[in-house]
């Protein structure tokens, strides 16, 4: 890793020096600082640190991604956060299902027309 890299988002937010082997740098890199700061407002750095310490090594990336996504969700929708994203996705699924039903009806109509012309 570059020795002159920017401090990770965790250390930057805590205003600490980010050591070369910082345990948070792989999960909260400097370029995700805005997402991290939003998540920090929700959870606080102590809780984020505790969650990361309790997670198994295999789960740390998933947990960190989830924490950063939660921060983004609240930045994008300050009333509904992650729940708003879920609602938006459910709405998109419903729209696509309606479109699929429409296409299936057209296909069935065409099949019926073809069958009648035989
Ligand atoms: Zn760090």
From TrEMBL:
Pfam families: LOB
Span of domain LOB: 6-107
Keywords of the record: Coiled coil
Superkingdom of this protein's organism: Eukaryota
Family: Belongs to the LOB domain-containing protein family.
Coiled coil: 86-113
Record's protein name: LOB domain-containing protein 9
Source organism: Cardamine amara subsp. amara
Matching InterPro entries: LOB
């Amino acid at each position: 890793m570059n020795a002159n890299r920017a401090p990770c988002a965790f250390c930057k937010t805590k205003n600490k020096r980010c050591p070369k082997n910082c345990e948070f740098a792989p999960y909260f890199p400097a370029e995700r600082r805005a997402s991290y700061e939003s998540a920090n407002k929700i959870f606080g750095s102590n809780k984020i640190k505790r969650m990361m310490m309790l997670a198994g090594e295999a789960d740390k990336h998933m947990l960190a991604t989830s924490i950063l996504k939660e921060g983004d969700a609240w930045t994008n929708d300050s009333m509904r956060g992650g729940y708003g994203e879920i609602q938006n996705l459910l709405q998109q699924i419903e729209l696509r299902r309606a479109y699929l039903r429409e296409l299936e009806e057209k296909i069935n109509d065409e099949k019926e027309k073809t069958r009648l012309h035989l």
